């Protein structure tokens, strides 16, 4: 192993230990801000796991996030916390497989519209059930989970999503997905089971989104469909992934950190116009950085050796 790789590994472990100790010395505001950063880092990275290599733009993030949150709202007081998370994982995976098998034959704009409609459909189903069956629209979340517990669980989830993304990128599944992203017809002619590959990765991505919703639920104490299935979450995740660069594993995290801080600032200073400003930010990113910050950095690296080679 090269010395540079050893140094990078030591730095990563030291950084992870420092992050794990943060709840012991951070005040309430900075702990809350760190939870928000980890939440969007995991969501954007999970979104990039599927949408990065396949180039399918999904707006279903809030559907899985909301399902995770409502699983905790319904079962949080009845079952042990690990069991509640396992049930959330099972529900998120089952929903992703059903949706994936029935819709991943779509592509382009049709897939985008369908995923947006899916999130709205799930939200309306929850509203219908709550209003007609339980006769209450919202639910209180009373579980013995502290802010520090939420932070540590999200940090563990962040490590897991990066580890699984790294393994997938070096597996046959990752190779197949890159071919699918280039040309699905060619992938089929190469003998790749396109449907299985897309559904498998869609389910893995959905599991992480569902777990984030479940872990974040105790933070609100009270949730209702408009909070758990807020469509703004889906758009914010897409903006973050596109800013950083969805074609690289760590690209969405690069976009998630600055934009989470920006959205935090906008919601505090301009609460009535923050959504409008977020829309403008989205347009600027799409036009100015189509490959994201990571793509810009990679092009700069490629041009430098070429320019040096041209010098007499």
From TrEMBL:
InterPro entries: ABC_transp_permease (IPR001851), LivM-like (IPR043428). The chain crosses the membrane at residues 7-25, 31-49, 56-73, 79-101, 108-130, 150-169, 190-215, 227-246, 253-270, 276-297. The keyword Transmembrane helix applies. It is found in: Cell membrane. It is a multi-pass membrane protein. Keywords: Cell membrane, Membrane, Transmembrane, Transmembrane helix. Signal peptide: none annotated. Its main location: membrane. CDD domains: TM_PBP1_LivM_like. The keyword Membrane applies. One of its GO terms (molecular function) is branched-chain amino acid transmembrane transporter activity. GO terms for cellular component: plasma membrane. This is Branched-chain amino acid ABC transporter permease. It comes from Bradyrhizobium sediminis.
């Amino acid at each position: 192993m090269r010395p540079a790789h050893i140094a990078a590994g030591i730095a990563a472990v030291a950084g992870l230990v420092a992050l794990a100790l943060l709840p012991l010395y951070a005040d309430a505001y900075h702990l809350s801000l760190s939870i928000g950063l980890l939440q969007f880092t995991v969501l954007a990275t999970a979104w990039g796991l599927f949408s990065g290599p396949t180039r399918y733009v999904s707006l279903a993030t809030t559907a899985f996030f909301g399902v995770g949150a409502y699983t905790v709202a319904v079962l949080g007081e009845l079952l042990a916390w690990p069991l509640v998370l396992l049930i959330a994982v099972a529900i998120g995976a089952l929903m992703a497989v059903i949706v994936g098998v029935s819709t991943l034959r779509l592509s382009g704009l049709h897939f985008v519209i369908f995923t947006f409609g899916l999130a709205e459909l799930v939200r309306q189903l929850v509203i219908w059930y709550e209003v007609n069956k339980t006769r209450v629209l919202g639910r209180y979340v009373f579980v013995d989970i502290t802010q520090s517990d939420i932070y540590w669980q999200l940090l563990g989830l962040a490590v897991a999503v990066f580890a699984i993304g790294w393994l997938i990128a070096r597996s046959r599944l990752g190779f197949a997905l890159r071919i699918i992203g280039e040309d699905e017809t060619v992938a089929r002619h190469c003998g790749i089971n396109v449907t299985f590959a897309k559904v498998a990765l869609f389910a893995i991505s959905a599991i992480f989104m569902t777990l984030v919703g479940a872990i974040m639920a105790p933070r609100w104490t009270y949730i209702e469909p408009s909070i758990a299935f807020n469509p703004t979450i889906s758009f914010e995740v897409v903006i973050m992934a596109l800013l950083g660069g969805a074609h690289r594993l760590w690209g969405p995290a690069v976009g998630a950190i600055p934009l989470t801080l920006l959205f935090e600032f906008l919601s505090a200073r301009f609460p009535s116009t923050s959504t409008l400003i977020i829309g403008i930010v989205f347009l600027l990113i799409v036009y100015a950085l189509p490959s994201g910050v990571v793509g810009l950095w990679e092009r700069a690296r490629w041009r430098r050796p070429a320019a040096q080679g041209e010098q007499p």
